[in-house]
Amino acid sequence: MVKWGRMRHREPLRYGTANRLRCLRGIAALLCVALAGTATHAASVVTLRNGFTITCASHGQVAPNTLRLYLDASDAAEQGGSYMDVAVASVASIEAAPENSTVGVRPPAAPAAAAPLALHTILQQSGSAHNVNTALLASVVHAESAGNARAVSRTGARGLMQLMPGTAKELGVQDSFAPAQNVDGGSAYLDQLLTRYGNDVALALAAYNAGPAAVDRYRGIPPYRETRLYVARVLREFNRLARAEAVRAHAAEAAVLPGTAR
Q: E strand or H helix at 187, and its extent?
């Protein structure tokens, strides 16, 4: 539990100042006594169990279960400094702050996104393992998640290739947010669809988007606007990547055989 100073009544995080607390003289007197005995006047880094870290100018225990963190160098009991209260049980550790530390609250570090090179390697490995063109896999990832390994759709599809939980389970994917697992599962599924529809890429993509049952029911790409736009978007990206690869291959060949360059 965390309480901030200086906030309006009834909000979960409460802000306040010692000047306002003086209006409640009895409470202010008790608070000053508590602070006088327990405050530690040294910059500290307080790490909470939820991963947040708070760098405070000083801190002190104002109640058996409450630790007060002062967010500036002034003495809150006398100068009206900003503070926040945290439950003692929520504190994981308290350490001395490095020199020149900036006072404030920092959220837990966000998971690092897969680097482009790492993702390209994952696509190559999965494509090779499941006999699916790497450019096609890249095009599906681009359309499904724009390369965001933490993407979640409104229907619950997850990860780079937007696997539904049920599909991921069937494919043996334990963590849909792990890029390698997600792409491997999506590649295996796309391979299944390509085999099912005789390597017809458009039908396989339609089935990836709308499900094989819809493709079978309509004996072709379903008349769903979303699905038709999806197939067109993936094929357009696939053709762009294929052309770019052809240009790179030609340039590499020309570098080996200068006489062929034009």
A: helix 179-196
Which residue type, as a one-letter code, is found at position 171?
Answer: L
Percent of the chain at pLDDT > 70 equals 71
- Domains, the chain, in order of start with CATH, read 2-106 (2.30.30), 116-260 (1.10.530.10)
Please tell me the predicted confidence (pLDDT) of residue 173. Answer: 96
CA gap 107, 249 in Å, rounded = 46
Whether residue 9 has pLDDT greater than 90:
no
Q: Judge contact between 170 and 155, C-beta under 8 A.
A: no
Q: Which two tokens stand for residue 33?
A: 């006594």
So what's the pLDDT on residue 37? Answer: 42
Q: Where is 68: in which H helix or E strand?
A: strand 66-70
Pairing status of strand 83-87 against strand 2-4:
antiparallel
User: Residues near 81 by Cβ (< 8 Å), separated by ≥ 6?
Assistant: 17, 18, 57, 70, 71, 72, 73, 74, 75
Q: CA 153, 159, 163: angle at the middle one, nearest 5?
A: 75
**Residue 144 appears among annotated catalytic residues:** yes
Residue 37 CA to its chain's centroid (Å): 43
CA 84 distance to own-chain centroid = 27
Which of the residue ranges 2-6, 69-73, 110-114, 207-211 would you say has the lowest mean pLDDT? 2-6
Triad 10, 16, 20: Cα angle to 5°: 105
In this predicted structure, the answer to whether residue 26 has a pLDDT above a threshold of 70 is no
Q: Which of 144, 170, 226, 237 is catalytic?
A: 144
